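User: We ran a pulldown and think these components assemble together. Before we commit to crystallization trials, I'd like a predicted model of the whole complex to look at. Sequences follow.
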Amino acid sequence: MVENEFYTWVQIRNCRRFYKRYYTTNFKADQSLLGLLEIFGLLEVQAFSKYAPCALDAFSIKLESEIDISGALGSEEIQVTILKTAPHILQAFENTLIQWVKMQQQNALS
Amino acid sequence: MTIIHIKQFLEKNGAPLAWLRVQLRLLPHFNKRGFFLHSMNEEAELDDELLELIGQVLEEIYHLKLA
Amino acid sequence: MNKIDARNILRGDFYKERSAYIAAGEPGIFHCHHYNCYLQAVLLDTKDYLPNIEQVLVDSAQEVAYSQFQAFFQNTPDLDIQGRKHTVTDYFRFAGFGQIDLDRVDNKGGTVTTNSEHYGVSWKLKFGKSNQPISFFTTGFLAGATEAIYGLALGTLNAVQESCLAMGDKYSQFTLSISNSDRELTASPQEGVFQTGNLPQPTNTSIDYEAIREALIHMPIEGAANGLIDSFGVLLTRHYANYYCNISYRFLNLFMKSMGTEGLNIATSLLIEGGRVCAFNTFGGVMQSNEWNALIKPMIKTREDWIHGIIVVVNALGWGIWQVEDLDPGKRILVKIQSGYESNAYLKKFGPSSLPISFLAAGGVAGLMNLVYALNLPERAPITLDEAVYKKISLGNDYFVPTQIKCRAMGAEFDLIEAALVRNG
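Assistant: Here's a predicted model for the assembly, 602 residues in total across the polymer chains.
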C-alpha cells in the first residue's frame, strides 16, 4: 500500500499486461469528481441504486485500452486499470484526483 | 528417476494437477509399460524413453525442465 | 451510410424462471478466457491417441452456430445475404468472440481474416505462443454460420485455420470450402431438458438475490469494437452452453472408447479442474470489481455473504438456478442446481448418464470456497490472482474438494454439489 496526504493506493496486476490500482480517499465520489474525470474518456453510469436502496451507482470512464477508471457515487474507492506502458496517463489521473481531494478538503474546512 | 521423484518435482515447480496433465497426455505410453493408473507403483524406475516424453510434455505445457 | 436495421441483430432473452439466456434457441453462458483455454488444452492433451479430438472441437462449434443462425434466419425471412452476414458478424462481436468480416465468403466457401479473435488472443496470453493453430471454435463457427447464411445443409462446408494469432501471426486466417469428407454433424440440442424454478432468497443472508440478479442481467456486457469483452480482469465470452457440453462429453465418450475406464478419473478430474480455474479467475475478478463494490458489497455483513454474492452472480451468468442448500462456514457447502446447463444439454443429447457430469459446477463450487476460505479473499482483497496464488491455494493446508452428490443426468431431481474442506499434509 502507498499512502500520501490525498489518497492511498494498492496495486494488483492481471494476466493481460494491465495494472489495476485501488485508490481510497477520505471522500465519497460525487458528480464533481465525474466532472473532472470525464476528460479521460467515455463516461457510463450503471444506476444500480434503482435495483436496491443500499446499492451505489457505478461509473466508468474508458479510453479504449488506455485507461479504465471506475468507481461508485458514494464510495471512497476508485479503481483504475491501466496498461503497463502508460504511466503518463496514470500521472494525469492522479493529478486530477489530487485536485478533487483538495477541493473536498477545502469544502470540509469551510 | 521414479514417479515419486517426478511428482515431488512437480509439486515444487509445476502447476496444480501437473502430474494429471502429464498422465493424460501420455496415457498410452504408461499403459504400454504396464503402468496402470489405478495400480501405479510410484517407486518403479521409469525408462529413458518415457522420461524423455515426460520432459517434452513438461517443457511444452509448463516450460519446465525436468531435473 | 446504411441505417442500422434492427432485424439484422440477434440478441437473446433472459428467462428468469430458469436463470438462462437464450438467443435463437441457443443457451448463452458467460465464461472467461481462462476456462475456455484450459478446457481446450486438457482436451488437446489427448490428441496423440484421440486423433479426432480437434475435429470434435470444430464440429461442435459448427453444429451450434449452424443451429442458432438457421433458427434466427427462419424467423427473419426478409433478410438478404448481406443482412444475414451482418447478423453473424455482429453476434460474433457481441458475444465477445472477436471481429470477423464475411465479405470474401460465398456459398462455396472463401476466406476470413481477423486480427482480433478471442481464442487466438487468449491462448497466447495464458499459455504463451502456440506451435499450431488453436482457434477451433472460430473455425467451426465460421463454417456453420456460413452454411446457415446460404441455406446450405449442415456439414456442407469445411473450414481450416491457416494462420493464428496465438502462433504470433499478425492475423488469424480461416479458409472455408465445400467439404469432401463424411462427417456426422447433428443439430444442437438447443435448450436441452431444462427445468423451471424460483430464484431463492435465503433467510440467513443480507444479500438481496432478486435485486442483484435483476441489476446484473440488465448490465450491457458485450464485445467492444475489437469484438472482445474485457470485464472483471478477464476476457469474457457469452459462449454456447452446448459447445462446452458437446466438446466435454464427446471427449469423454471418445476417451472411454479408446482407453476404457483406465484413466477416466484423471480425465474427469481435469474437467473439474477447469471449473476451479474458472472460479478462481472469474469469481475472483468479480469479487474485486467495481460492480461488486457498488452493488453487492454494500449488502455484505459476513464472510458468508461473499458466498451468497457469487451464487447470485452465477444466476445471472446463465448457468442455471444455483442456491446454497447448506453452508457450514469454512468447512462445507452444498449447492443445489436446477436447470444446470450441463445436465440440460447432456440429457437431451446423450440421455441418462452412468456417472456425474456437472464438471464445471463441481469445480466452480470448490473454487468459490477456496477463494473465500482458503485464500480469504474477503479480507485480503485486492490481491493479484495469478498462477502462483492458485498454486498456493492448491498446496495449502486447507483446500476444498468437490463431490457431485446428485446428478440430474443420472436421474436425480436436481444437481447437488458438495465442496468440503480437506486438510492437506
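Chains B and A do not touch (no CB pair under 8 Å). That may be worth checking against your pulldown data before setting up trials.

User: Thanks, that helps.
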